[in-house]
Write a structure and sequence with these properties.
It contains eight helices and five strands, in the order αααβββααβααβα. It is an alpha/beta fold. It has a domain of 167 residues. Helix 3 packs across helix 8 and helix 4 packs antiparallel against helix 5.
């Protein structure tokens, strides 16, 4: 068949292969020309890069020399630093050794002190436990009127004993009306002996503390007012005796809480006590009052001592004046005797007759002394 290429023909295949080879050569030549144009600036760049690499090599050599000098200087400085550090460490170690030794001594001493204090605390704790096991609660003590009175008397006696000398008071003193005061403080008149009563109405106060509503509180306040008024009146009638005691007495409350409650919520009772000359005191105010009494009694005793001295001096001066008066009376008596004698002599001379005297009887005239 004409007009068609037979691809199975070897000649056709050879022609095609030759054409392909020629095309490839053309392409390679074109690429080579392009590569030559590209390689020319690349060659220039490679030349420049070589110069820069040479410069870098020279700089590296200089840098290596500098680094060598720096390394030597650093090694020298490091050696000196190590030597200084070793010396400083030796000094610090010595100081630490001394400090640790001193701290060890102080620690041992502190531990000894702590041990002693712990022993003291243990002893105190043991005493507290023993005391708490042996002592009844305050509520149990104050629940009974007799034990409450004994508690108040013991506390009052302790306060009075601390504040006054033993001869300045008497516990459980009996007055002329047969009433017995818990304590009688002896003071010179005025004001005189002051009685102190240590009983107090605690039942109403306990009811006031235990009140759970307004009605119970109001009832407890009423009972407390009634009990306190009765107690104030009883103290005033029993322990204020004209001519025997002072014009006032003390009502001792052995509880600061009761005292605070009284002054905070029952001021009218306190005023009624003032009117009845019954002074309400707590342990603190009782101590202050007794100290004031002691100071006043001391001042009165000092004044009395000075008064006794003045009286003694007055007695001595009166004796001296009496002796002077006796001597003056004696002198006046002797002067009177001499005056009487002189008067008698004058009267005799006045009645004497000189003419009856004879010449022989005349007294001889004595010559004047030159």
């Amino acid at each position: 068949m004409t007009g068609q290429i037979d691809l199975t023909d070897p000649l056709v295949l050879g022609g095609i292969a030759a054409a392909l080879v020629l095309l490839i050569l053309l392409l390679v030549l074109n690429a080579a020309l392009k590569a030559a144009r590209v390689v020319q600036p690349l060659h220039w760049q490679m030349t420049q890069l070589g110069q820069r690499v040479q410069s870098l090599s020279d700089g590296q050599q200089h840098l290596a020399g500098g680094l060598h000098h720096v390394s030597e200087a650093q090694a020298k400085a490091q050696g000196q630093m190590i030597q200084m550090v070793e010396q400083r460490l030796a000094e610090v170690a010595e100081l630490m050794s001394e400090s640790l030794q001193g701290n060890a001594v102080r620690t041992a001493r502190s531990l000894g002190d702590l041990h002693a204090r712990l022993e003291a605390i243990d002893k105190a704790q043991a005493n507290i436990e023993k005391l708490s096991g042996n002592v009844l609660s305050l509520q149990d003590i104050l629940s009974n009127k007799q034990t409450r009175g004994a508690f108040g008397e013991i506390q009052l006696h302790d306060i009075v004993q601390r504040a006054l000398p033993s001869d300045a008071y008497t516990m459980q003193a009996t007055l002329s009306n047969g009433k017995r005061a818990d304590c009688l403080v002896h003071l010179p008149k005025p004001p005189g002996a002051i009685a102190i009563d240590a009983k107090f109405p605690l039942e109403a106060y306990e009811a006031l503390r235990n009140a759970s509503n307004d009605a119970e509180t109001a009832e407890a306040r009423r009972q407390m007012r009634t009990a306190l008024r009765h107690h104030i009146r009883a103290i005033s009638e029993r322990y204020i005796l004209h001519g025997e005691t002072a014009d006032g007495a003390l009502m001792f409350l052995p509880s600061e809480a009761v005292y605070a409650e009284l002054h905070a919520n029952f001021p009218e009772i306190v005023r009624e006590g003032f009117t009845a000359r019954v002074w309400i005191v707590s342990p603190t105010t009782c101590m202050a009052t007794l100290n004031t009494m002691r100071e006043q009694a001391g001042a009165i005793r000092r004044e009395l001592g000075e008064l006794y001295k003045d009286i003694e001096r007055l007695g001595v001066r009166v004796e001296n004046l009496d002796r002077h008066f006796a001597q003056a009376a004696k002198d006046v008596s002797e002067i009177r005797i001499s005056a009487d004698k002189a008067g008698r002599r004058a009267r005799r001379l006045d009645n004497f007759d000189f003419e009856e005297l004879s010449p022989d009887a005349a007294a001889p005239v004595l010559p004047d002394k030159v």
